[in-house]
């Protein structure tokens, strides 16, 4: 949250008990829930849209947005305009973007949801997967230790090429257990005919991220967690996502021309958190109960593991 708050508002919180931090977290969580497919049926089933708009979930969401979320975010936006340091709000005007207040709110809302929940869910999967694969943890720790012995510190994102196995493990983690069910939705600009199917203009197109990542034509033994499949795929996820479709190594940040706009920030955060954790700890199960990596729960826009307990065992370099 502090990374996003600093980027957007030039604001940082020293403790999780800060009332404004708590409010910002709750607003983000509720916005995430409102965006879930099960809470947005009127966009997919027009027959329920009229009732939903006036009496159902859509009406309740609208009241929440107008009476709670928007006033709170508008205050943070106005405070950000007065900050001395750089932030996203100020950059809109500085870079010549003429946005309405509603457009500003939309962008900021997306940044808060997309930049927080997805990162925490990804780390939750990283942790539980590593616990289930102690042999991979040992290889990760060994690679980080070699870098530390040479440089006296942990690697930065710019030095990721010197810890290729760590990069491979992170890529395989988000392929093996995707962060979202559907990724970013798209809309057809014109009538399309794909494999004999007509997709009319203005159709909402949603992909199954799990089906894409478990496609045996694209990934050998897709149900097996195997970081070695990415040994020769060391490009940043941003570079891969913006390249040819044939060169994509995963689709966790979306597909087509419209992908996650914060992919570089997300990849950097993920790398730093992963390296800092596994440079200091081994993750082990509590007792003999290995955490479950097969069952998944819906977290509105995200897919997260079932509740689990692990031990973080401090280790020395």
Polypeptide structure, described:
Helices cover 48% and strands 9% of the residues. It has a domain at 1-98. The protein is built from 11 helices and 8 strands. It has helices spanning 2-9, 19-34, 49-54, 57-82, 88-94, 101-132, 134-151, 164-176, 209-213, 237-241, 263-278, and strands at residues 186-187, 192-194, 197-199, 204-205, 281-285, 296-299, 302-305, 310-314. β6 and β7 (302-305) form a beta hairpin. α2 (19-34) packs across α4. With 317 residues, it is mainly alpha-helical. It is globular and about 50 Å long. 26% of the residues are buried.
Short précis:
The chain is mainly alpha-helical and 317 residues long.
What would the average pLDDT be, to the nearest integer?
A: 86
Q: Can you tell me the overall shape?
A: globular
Total helical segments? 11
Structural class: mainly alpha
Calculate the terminal CA-CA distance, rounded to whole Å: 30 Å
In percent, how much strand structure appears in the residues?
5-15%
Helical percentage: 40-55%
Strand tally is 8
Rg result: 21 Å
Largest sheet, spatial ordering of strands: 1-4
User: How can the largest sheet be summarized?
Assistant: 2 strands, antiparallel
* Regions with little confidence, pLDDT below 50 for 5+ residues: none
- N-to-C order of helices and strands: HHHHHHHHEEEEHHHEEEE
InterPro entries: Cyt_P450 (IPR001128), Cyt_P450_CS (IPR017972), Cyt_P450_E_grp-I (IPR002401), Cyt_P450_sf (IPR036396), Cytochrome_P450_fung (IPR050364)
Pfam families: p450
Keywords: Heme, Iron, Metal-binding, Monooxygenase, Oxidoreductase
Protein name: Cytochrome P450
């Amino acid at each position: 949250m502090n990374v996003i708050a600093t980027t957007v508002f030039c604001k940082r919180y020293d403790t999780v008990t800060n009332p404004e931090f708590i409010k910002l977290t709750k607003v983000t969580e509720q916005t995430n829930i409102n965006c879930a497919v099960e809470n947005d049926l009127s966009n997919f089933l027009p027959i329920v849209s009229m009732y939903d708009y006036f009496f159902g979930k859509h009406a309740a969401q609208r009241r929440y947005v107008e009476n709670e979320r928007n006033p709170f975010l508008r205050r943070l936006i106005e405070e950000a305009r007065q900050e001395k340091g750089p932030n996203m709000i100020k950059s809109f005007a500085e870079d010549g973007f003429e946005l309405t207040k509603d457009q500003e709110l939309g962008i900021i809302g997306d940044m808060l949801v997309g930049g927080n929940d997805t990162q925490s869910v990804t780390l939750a999967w990283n942790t539980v997967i590593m616990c289930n694969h102690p042999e991979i943890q040992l290889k990760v720790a060994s690679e980080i230790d070699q870098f530390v012995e040479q440089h006296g510190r942990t690697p930065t994102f710019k030095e990721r090429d010197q810890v290729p196995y760590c990069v491979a493990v992170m890529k395989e983690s988000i392929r093996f257990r995707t962060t979202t069910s559907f990724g970013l939705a798209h809309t057809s600009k014109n009538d399309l005919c794909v494999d004999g199917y007509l997709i009319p203009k203005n159709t909402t197109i949603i992909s199954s991220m799990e089906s894409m990542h478990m496609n045996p034509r694209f990934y050998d033994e897709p149900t097996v967690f195997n970081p070695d499949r990415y040994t020769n795929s060391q490009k940043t996820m941003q570079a891969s996502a913006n390249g040819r479709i044939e060169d994509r190594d995963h689709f966790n940040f979306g597909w087509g021309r419209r992908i996650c706009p914060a992919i570089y920030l997300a990849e950097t955060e993920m790398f730093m958190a992963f390296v800092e954790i596994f440079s200091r700890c081994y993750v082990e199960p509590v007792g003999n109960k290995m955490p479950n990596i097969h069952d998944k729960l819906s977290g509105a826009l995200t897919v997260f593991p079932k509740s689990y307990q692990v031990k973080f065992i401090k280790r020395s370099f």
